[in-house]
Structures are given as C-alpha cells and as structure tokens.
Structure to design on (118 residues):
C-alpha cells in the first residue's frame, strides 16, 4: 500500500549538514502528515520531526537545527539537518503520521544511516 525509500545519509563531521530525502508511493500523499524518526544503535526509535500542510513539529533535541519540508509534486519529504552533533548518529526513517505530531503508521522503509563524527 505505502512504500518509502530514504536516501541522503552519510558521514559528516560535527557542525556539518546533510539533507535526507524520502520518496513515497501511495494514494493521496499530499493529504497525509509525514514524519522522520531515528534509531541509534542499542536504543529505541524516536521521533525527530513531522509536517502536515504548513504545520511542523520537532523533537526538542533538534529544534533550531533541523527543518522538515515536502514536495508534493515529487511525493518526497526532506529533512535538512544542520549543525549536526555526534548524538544525531542514527538510522533515519520516514513514515506517515497516524496521530499528530509524533505517532507513526507502520510502513517502515530501510532507512538511511547518518554518522556524525567529532
């Protein structure tokens, strides 16, 4: 029903930037809230950011550093990550939002790995 492909991860030094992309397929993409989540090694998955129309929400840990956006014409959601910190190291996933702002549906892709070195 819903397919998600994340890309854009990589290795960066602290203070650097990356832009993640999530290509989504499925009906009525523009009508769905979308979110980014991450999971660090040995830890639980956590909410990062979400977007619904012109409204956005961010975890406290990334406020002021990350920006979520979307291009409905391309069925793609983005996460611009600036001022990266080593603690941002994780596999990042996108997912539609079931319950605003932070509860995802369960259409997980493979994710994209972000590694931030100090």
């Amino acid at each position: 029903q819903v397919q998600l492909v994340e890309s854009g991860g990589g290795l960066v030094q602290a203070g650097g930037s990356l832009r993640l992309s999530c290509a989504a397929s499925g009906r009525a993409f523009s009508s769905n809230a979308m979110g980014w989540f991450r999971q660090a090694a040995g830890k639980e998955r956590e909410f990062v950011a979400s977007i619904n129309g012109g409204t956005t929400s961010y975890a406290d840990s990334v406020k002021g550093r990350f920006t979520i956006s979307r291009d409905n014409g391309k069925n793609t959601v983005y996460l611009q990550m600036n001022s990266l910190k080593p603690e941002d190291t994780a596999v990042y996933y996108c997912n539609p939002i079931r319950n605003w702002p932070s509860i995802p549906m369960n259409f997980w892709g493979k994710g994209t790995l972000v590694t931030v070195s100090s």
The chain is about 0% helix and 55% strand. The first strand starts at residue 3 and ends at 7. The mean pLDDT is 93.
